[in-house]
Amino acid sequence: MTVSNEVSVLDRLLTNGILASACPTRVVLDHVTSKWGVLLLVALSERSLRWGELRRVVEGISEKMLAQTLRTLEADGLVHREVTATVPPRVDYSLTPLGTELVARLLPLMEWVADHADAIVGDRT
Amino acid sequence: MTVSNEVSVLDRLLTNGILASACPTRVVLDHVTSKWGVLLLVALSERSLRWGELRRVVEGISEKMLAQTLRTLEADGLVHREVTATVPPRVDYSLTPLGTELVARLLPLMEWVADHADAIVGDRT
């Protein structure tokens, strides 16, 4: 699809159906911005991590949600799961090139939220 | 808080507790990346919209979720609600300066997702 530079970002998103229901964009957006999806992607932003490391870094995630969210991100092609045949088997999770591209766009948002969260929640007196 | 440039983004986010449970960052992140929160913020990225316009643009949102999400975003100081005393009263929603800052960081992510959603969902055969 060719999009002119004259077209605004919002028009472009509307054209691509990001605000319409039942479109792939909504599905991916739900995965990426799910409570745990976003935290797992950021946790993997610098290096691969093992299951137990992910559980520790992403505080509060249950075994069930960790398994489920990793499966979704793996099916989306954003996270790579590598099993090394040791005893016991070692499983490492890392970002795929696609996941790395995505996280590059997630981090500025996360940083902004981290910088402004206290002020935002503090506004609610 | 002063953060050295030497500190990685991930370290910085960990220091700010973005991956820890029960911190303001997680609360704000949940609001901002909620299914409807992100779509409403993007919908308002260019101009103020009225209630009915928001319902049409953000396809599939219920009256209840629209009201609830707008209340949360307003309480966070991200969305401004302006009532004009006409008969019937006119209510416009717009981004606050804080909301505008946030959306500037949301749009690159949304564009990337819109550009890659078909490929990502198509991967799942």
From TrEMBL, chains A, B:
Name-wise, this protein is Transcriptional regulator, HxlR family
What species is this protein from? Cellulomonas fimi (strain ATCC 484 / DSM 20113 / JCM 1341 / CCUG 24087 / LMG 16345 / NBRC 15513 / NCIMB 8980 / NCTC 7547 / NRS-133)
Keyword Transcription regulation among UniProt keywords: yes
Domain HTH hxlR-type, first and last residues per copy: 23-121
Q: Which PANTHER family match?
A: HTH-TYPE TRANSCRIPTIONAL REGULATOR YODB, TRANSCRIPTIONAL REGULATOR, MARR FAMILY
| Gene3D superfamilies listed in its UniProt record | Winged helix-like DNA-binding domain superfamily/Winged helix DNA-binding domain
Alphabetized GO MF terms: DNA binding
Question: InterPro entries under this entry?
Answer: HTH_HxlR, WH-like_DNA-bd_sf, WH_DNA-bd_sf
Taxonomically, what lineage is the organism?
Bacteria, Bacillati, Actinomycetota, Actinomycetes, Micrococcales
**Is the Transcription regulation keyword given for this protein?**
yes
